[in-house]
Amino acid sequence: MAVSWRSWLANEGVKHLCLLVWLSLNVLLFWKTFLLYNQGPEYHYLHQMLGLGLCLSRASASVLNLNCSLILLPMCRTLLAYLRGSQKVTSRRTRRLLDKSRTFHITCGVTICIFSGVHVAAHLVNALNFSVNYSEDFVELNAARYRDEDPRKLLFTTVPGLTGVCMVVVLFLMITASTYAIR
């Protein structure tokens, strides 16, 4: 039994439109931030020192910020109950979309995991580049204190490095706790 185009559009169209808007927003945010740090004159010397690691770390961070702000909205029972009880939400289609909010929560979670991997990898490359490309001319831009400083020292002895490691550990624990076998 084939599903008609009109039936599919009525049942699944709004969900896919929302997903397309969300995906477009992520791509646009990543691209705009990447270009800002790649071509912005105020980041010229930092870009010379770090290369694409700077662009990737900042662009993935902006996508992470967006998705971390959105991940809890679909699981907020009070908000969902308020929207379902609202006089403006009367169509069955809108109610069905609200019922599928868990899928959006999972989609945001997977996106956070992927871009966290990109973000961590870019910061590891940045730590190495800070050490290798140390410049006496721009000491205030450089996280390393001298040329060829051990990048692990930058990661584990600085406040940003330690908080980043702690956040990755917390993310790993959250991913582990959300698996079906653990729940």
Automatic annotation (TrEMBL):
Ferric oxidoreductase domain residues: 71-183
GO MF term set: superoxide-generating NAD(P)H oxidase activity
Gene that specifies this protein: LOC103271410
Keyword field: Membrane, Oxidoreductase, Transmembrane, Transmembrane helix
UniProt name for this protein: NADPH oxidase 4
Membrane topology: Multi-pass membrane protein
One Pfam assignment: Ferric_reduct
Keyword flag Oxidoreductase: yes
GO cellular component: NADPH oxidase complex
Cellular location(s): Membrane
Gene Ontology process terms (BP): defense response; superoxide anion generation
Lineage: Eukaryota, Metazoa, Chordata, Craniata, Vertebrata
Bilayer-spanning residue ranges: 20-39, 59-83, 104-125, 161-182
Protein's UniProt keywords contain Transmembrane helix: yes
